[in-house]
Design brief:
- It holds the Pfam family 2OG-FeII_Oxy.
- This protein is α+β, with helices and mostly antiparallel strands.
- The chain contains 5 helices and 10 strands; from the N terminus they run H-H-E-E-E-E-E-E-H-E-E-E-E-H-H.
- It is elongated.
- The model has no long low-confidence stretch (mean pLDDT 92).
- The structure holds 2-oxoglutaric acid and fe (ii) ion (FE2).
- 2-oxoglutaric acid (AKG) binds next to strand 1, strand 3, strand 7 and strand 8.
């Protein structure tokens, strides 16, 4: 991705050496009223990349594309790689994060394992400096410490693709990086 974006490789190396990795185990019990509940509310992940293993091959994960929810069919031994908000910010919008949700099944349980990959703990989050060249290529997001970025994320309810990005987005006329 860094190569495709023509990013300075040192910049990405510095951000992701000794990076933070968090692992989540999700259990979605069967629910007879599956149409009336949601397993996991719509959201985009806060980290850079998430790797998902749909463990017992039960349907449920869906991504939002052009306003429609598209199922991500579990495939044996296949991993799903999701782009998170941190990569959207880092790429200054070139790689948008993916909004997703999980539905529940009326009769079958569902299990998944996710690993979330972020920058190293002392990093500052913001558009890669090698991608910013105002006024032609202005920064779309501001800079913030990883700590404050996650404090904001975990203080909010999952509510579509807004949780981390709105906190970081620069308003019109405020293009400083
Ligand atoms: O259960 C899944 O397939 C995805 C879970 C997820 O999106 C998350 O934990 O952030
Ligand atoms: Fe997620």
């Amino acid at each position: 991705m860094a190569e495709a974006l023509k990013m300075d490789p040192d910049e990405i190396e510095e951000l992701f050496s000794d990076c933070l990795q968090r692992m989540g185990l999700n259990y979605y019990p069967p629910c007879p009223k599956s149409q009336q509940v949601i397993g996991l509310s719509p959201h985009s992940d806060a980290g850079a990349l998430s790797i998902v293993l749909q463990l017992n091959e039960t349907d449920g994960l869906q991504i939002r594309k052009d306003g429609k929810w598209i199922p991500v069919k579990p495939m044996p031994n296949a991993l799903v790689v999701n782009i998170g908000d941190m990569l959207e910010i880092l790429s200054n919008g070139a790689y948008p994060s993916i909004e997703h949700r999980v539905t529940v099944n009326p009769t079958v349980e569902r299990l998944s394992i996710v690993t979330f990959h972020s920058t190293h703990p002392d990093a500052e989050i913001g558009p890669a400096l090698s991608l910013i060249d105002p006024p032609h290529k202005p920064a779309l997001f501001r800079r913030e410490t990883l700590k404050k970025y996650y404090q904001n994320f975990f203080a909010q309810k999952l509510n579509g693709k807004t949780t981390s990005l709105d906190f970081m987005r620069l308003g019109n006329g405020d293009q400083s990086s």
